[in-house]
Amino acid sequence: MADRAVTDRRPLVLVGAQLLWFAAALPFLGLAVLTNLGTPERKQQVAAELPRLVVGALDHRAVGVLLWVAAVTFLLSAVFVGPGRRWARTAAVTFTGLYDAALVMLLLGDTPRPGGWLVGGAVVLASLAAVVLSYQPPVERYLVGPGDPLRSTA
């Protein structure tokens, strides 16, 4: 597997998917930083921009730790797709589904300002576009290398 990853060129659609996954993880990283390192004044300022569901959560360190773990795991799975690991794509797609569902529930739980809808919608669309790109034929050929039992014989 390592030899194939070194010799085969990574498809551009896979690079695009990775970049979109990175962009989709940024809001979660930002909330993790804010929850763990933000001043109370800054938390209140940000909380004023977010739905009411988030206001109390910004004061709990455990939420910040969970956001760190989730965002870093999501980023690592997106990184490991690059060298040709199918399990990493599966993990990134799973995280995409979980994050998008949580984000949509958060956005629908209250009526945020238009900026929240814009950022939330952009994150959801970017991550869904990454999923679509990660299943394109060039990526499939890259992830399922020669001699792989999943390779089609047709």
Short structural summary:
The chain has about 150 residues and is an all-alpha fold. It has one domain (about 10-145). It has helices spanning about 1-5, 10-35, 40-50, 50-55, 60-80, 85-110, 115-135, 135-145.
Would you write up a description of this structure?
There is one protein chain. This protein has helices at residues 2-7, 12-37, 40-49, 52-55, 61-81, 86-109, 114-134, 137-143. By secondary structure, the chain is mostly helical. It has one domain (12-143). Helix 2 (12-37) runs antiparallel to helix 5 (61-81), helix 2 (12-37) runs antiparallel to helix 7 (114-134) and helix 5 (61-81) packs antiparallel against helix 6. The mean pLDDT is 80.
Radius of gyration: 18 Å
Helix content: over 70%
Distance between the termini: 22 Å
Reported for the largest beta sheet, the result is: none
Per DSSP, the total helix count is 8
Which class of secondary structure composition applies to the elements? mainly alpha
| Beta strand count | 0
Unreliable stretches covering 5 or more consecutive residues: none
Q: How would you describe the shape?
A: elongated
Q: From N to C, what is the helix and strand string?
A: HHHHHHHH
